[in-house]
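pasting for the record
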Amino acid sequence: MDPLRNANSAFALLTGAIALGLLLPLLAQQGMFMDGMLYAVVAHNQANGIGTFWEPVFSVRGFAGLTTFHEHPPLTFGLQALWFRVFGDAFWVENLYCLVAAGSTALLIARTWTAVVPPGHTARRLAWLPILFWIVQPTVHWCFQNNMEENTMGLFTTAAVLAVVSGTGRRWLALHLLAGVLVFLAIMSKGPPGLFPLAAPVLWWVATRQGSFGRAMGGSALMFLSVLVCLGSTLLLPGALESLHTYADGRLLHRIAAQPTVHTRFRILLDLFNAVLGPLLLTLLLHFLLKHRSAHDPNVSTLHRRAWGLALIGLAGVVPLMLTLVQKSFYMSPALPIIALALALFVAAPLASWMEGLSPSSPWVRIPRVLGIAGIVGAMLAAVLLFGKPSRDADMIADVQRIGTVVPERTLIGLDSDLWLTWNLQCYLMRRHYISCDEGATEHAWYLSPQGGAAPAKDMSPAGPALSGYILWNRPSSAFDRGQ
């Protein structure tokens, strides 16, 4: 009988329960962070004929001074638009996209684990460990709960790193070319932060000394060349050059120069420490408790060198963010799967040795198995019970639903200036009913103001159902003002 099988399956179940518990109940509900709502609106619009791949659209009045939405490159919106075309318009469609992205990333982590752990080593079967270290990081599960673009970019960067660490022997050329294509797709998903796997071949060699330095440099050069070829080919497509120029010049460089979000370049390092603190403490604890179990394991030094290689690659996805003062903690999310793999590798050998000595009746096997089964059932039950209920913005979502019963779809309405920066309100109106907003404009048939506000124009009166946070005004004699 396999001595590791029962213990391994028990901890894998527990990891699955933790992952589902962190994701499923919230993804079954309505409401999310503003940025994720913006992205869902743009993708949903594209799926329904409002905007195109190269010229995405948020609303009739545009966004950030542009008629089109160029806050980021267009690939994530295009992929999610395909998702909407397949699954329809329900609130849960973008949430399902996030859940599938999380599951796909977990599979890539597991595949990378088997690629870096030497064949035949018992630790190779502990692929649940890096997945656990990854999903418990608050930045990670928050991103998947809120439809962040880093979810899609992280899929491509993780796959690129997998291609690099797997690229040995006769597959070297093909896998490094593939890695470059994946880096290009990452850039097209969320911009320059997706470049970091280009350094992976060299950083992997620095830590592991696998192959030669020249071959490592060649791998990075080959990936870079692949990115350039993909970019050059893309720019030949109709509309691509203008779209990407608008993004790079009108939004990316402008934001870096004029819209700092932090006061110190070192802030991202503090965010990284906060994100990995839980897995880091667990790694240190396991190391000190179990290090004697791997004292005679000849593969330990190999595992540690590869752990340092992955750690360097992960840091390459974080440290360059210090070049600007535009930093947010979720920007580093694509690097966190690699860092989780690195931390797990440091304790893989002693943990596997300890688990091999556990009997099926051990509490260390029975308790994780019971908790895992109970957690999976509990997460699924919670998702069913919470399905469709608001996780945030409950009153706003209810008001938007009421507004949608009287204001026709694709209508342009006036929005009081005091509400203009309430972006979730605009997002819900557009996502649910294609209702665009025009700041302070009283010439339209409909106008939305905060509770207690005066009539925006003499010929307007309150209309429609009572709202909890707003007043909906209407000019009955006016034709509906449609925004096409």
